[in-house]
Structure formats: C-alpha cells, structure tokens
Design a protein that fits this description.
By secondary structure, this protein is of the alpha/beta class. The chain is about 40% helix and about 20% strand. The protein contains eleven helices and 14 strands. A seven-stranded mixed beta sheet has the order 1-2-3-4-5-7-6, with helices on both faces. A hairpin with a 3-residue loop joins strand 6 and strand 7. Helix 7 crosses helix 8. The N and C termini lie far apart (about 65 Å).
C-alpha cells in the first residue's frame, strides 16, 4: 500500500551510534530493504510515518554517506532529494565537507542529480561518487607539482601501524631500484596509532633518505574502513570491489601526474587479505581494461630478524605485553624512542 507523506512535514530524527535501541530499529529497516548496517557510522537521519515507523534513513561516517534507503511505498514523493540534502547538511555540521558515496550502479543517476560526480566503478557492483567536480583535478594538480625526473618512478602505499624496520627495508629496497620514490601514507584514523603519529614516525624514520617524497594521507587512497559492505552480501565480493576501485583510482588519477612506473610491495606470508591484494595489483595495475599507463608491480621479500618476519602486528603485541627489549630489534631508533616515551613512561 502506497503511503502519502506531506513533504512540508519532513522532520528527520537523528539516531547516534550509541543509541542501541535506535540502531536496532534502523538495522531492521535496512534489512527489510535488503541492506546491512555498516560499521563506522556516527549518526543516522531517519524519517518516520504517522505510525512512528521508519520509512527512510541515511548514515554519516567520516567523509562518507552510507546506508541510504527509502521504503518502496514512499518513492516519488521528494523524500530522496530532501534526505540527501539533509545528510549533506548534517555532514557539514560534523565537519565533513568532502563527501564520498558508494552506491549500486542503478542509483548513480539519483546521486548525480544531487550534486555528486562519479569517479570510478566496478561494473555491475558499485559506483564511487564525490560531491565536487573539481576536487580530484585539484589533487592531481598538486601531485603534478611534485613530479620528479627519471625513467623508473616508484611508489609505495603504507599504513605503518607503527613504522618498523620492515617498512624501512621496503623503502630502501625500492629506492635502490628506481630514480625517485613516492610514499603515500594511509590517512584514515582507524588504526591503533593515529594518522598524525604514523606520519611523524615515517618522516622521522626516513629523514636520512634522499630521492623520496612522503605524501600525506589522501581520501583517494581508499581504505577498508570507508569502503561499504552494506549492499555487497559476500565478503569476497566486498574485498574484490574495494581492491579494484582502489587500484583503478591509483592507476588512473594518482600515478600519471607523478609519472609513476612501478609499485613496490612486501610479500605477505601471514595475512590472507593483503596477500590477495598484492595479487590483485598485478591484475589491475596492468589490465588493458583500464585506460591508463600500466604500472609494474615489484614484490620485495620481507625483512626478518632471527628467522622471524618483522611486522607491525608483532610490534603491537609486544607493546601490549610491555616487552620493549624484544620490540627494539624490530623498529628504527626513532620509533623505539617514541614508543618508550609514550607507553613505558605512561605506565610508570
């Protein structure tokens, strides 16, 4: 039965992540619309009918609009446009002016009509849009200003949670094989160590190196935290789409302004997802399906200490156990001093 809602009476309610009862209600509404609830959403806007039932909702995560749904019985009444406008306004209140939205391909016309512009897509699966026609071009212009001469221009994308001797070894190995190296730091704050700390540790740990540009975090380096899972039902499809979008954007928009020809990665013996991501690089950074210069993927053998692969995961484990004597063999002096000052002294 079609519900008729007076457009003059639209009054969106805010449901914050800490409101467990409200989130359960939103979750139920999303499930009825064949969607799942997504992590990292800070607040939902919901619209109710005269019976108090949710008939529309949308969520705000840092820099991303997610989980937009409208009951079929209420379509064609202007709710979608009002909801989108209200979500954009709420995001601005929260300080998120640069907005992305991931949606199904069939919803792309609606969001382009709301002032969003497509960036990249996985055909039949997902489309990524942002709320500016020029922001990506401006980012590319800033990258172009940092271009360096050379035939072999390398790149690394790094989280470094925290920066270890393994990360340093990867950088030094890459520098030995190229004329210049561009290092991109993952900008999201979803790790144990904040983005600010991770960036500072990378800069301190590489201060002695030349022919290296460290790039601050960019929303165009897509993270797993911002990528949606609410309309992609299988985890394998989520990972595949995330990787394809991320690598396509890197190849089409980020690499060309800098003249990047190579991307360096460490081999991954422990993490299944990262290992799969490395394999996907070899496909999407060279695939003829993408209209952009190909990028050669170079895998570097991971650094070991006493037959043990150095990893940030192990450093965090020893940090949690207070084993500074062990972890000092796995991190540069600059990282070690930071960890001692921040964690050992704090526990005294």
């Amino acid at each position: 039965m079609r519900q008729v809602i007076d457009s003059a009476q639209y009054d969106f309610e805010r449901i914050y992540a800490g409101n467990l009862e409200g989130i359960r209600e939103v979750t139920g509404f999303l499930h009825r619309n064949n969607l799942n609830i997504d992590d990292f959403i800070e607040v939902f806007l919901v619209l109710r009918n005269g019976k108090g039932e949710i008939i529309a909702c949308g969520g705000i995560a840092p820099g991303v609009i997610k989980c937009v749904a409208i009951d079929d019985s209420c379509r064609g009444q202007g709710i979608a446009l009002t909801l989108a406008s209200s979500l954009i306004q709420l995001a601005a209140e929260l300080g998120y002016h640069h907005l992305f939205i991931y949606t199904k391909p069939e919803n792309e016309p609606f969001f382009t009509g709301c002032g969003f512009y497509p960036i990249a897509s996985v055909p039949g699966r997902v489309v990524l849009l942002e709320n500016s026609p020029v922001r990506l071009k401006q980012y590319q212009a800033r990258l172009a200003a940092l271009k360096q001469p050379g035939e072999r221009i390398g790149s690394i994308v790094m989280n470094a949670n925290p920066f270890t001797n393994g990360h340093l070894y990867l950088i030094e190995s890459a520098l030995a094989q190229c004329d210049w190296l561009h290092l991109f730091v993952v900008g999201e704050d979803k790790s144990q160590f904040s983005y600010t700390d991770r960036l500072a540790l990378i800069k301190a740990g590489t201060a002695h190196l030349s022919r290296l540009t460290v790039h601050e975090g960019s929303p165009y380096i897509i993270s797993r935290a911002t990528f949606p899972c609410y309309f992609l039902k299988q985890e394998s499809i989520v990972h595949q789409c995330h990787m394809e979008l991320d690598l396509s954007i890197f190849r089409i928009y980020i690499a060309p302004p800098l003249g990047i020809t190579h991307r360096f990665v460490g081999n991954e013996p422990n993490c299944v997802i990262t290992n799969y991501y490395n394999k996907q690089m070899r496909i999407w950074l060279k695939s003829p399906e993408i209209n952009a210069p190909p990028i050669e993927v170079v895998q570097i053998q991971r650094l070991e200490y006493q037959n043990d692969v150095i990893s940030a995961t192990k450093v965090r484990k020893w940090l949690g156990e207070g084993d500074f004597e062990t972890l000092r063999h796995y991190v540069p002096d600059s990282t070690y001093r930071f960890l001692i000052n921040k964690y050992e002294k704090a526990s005294v």
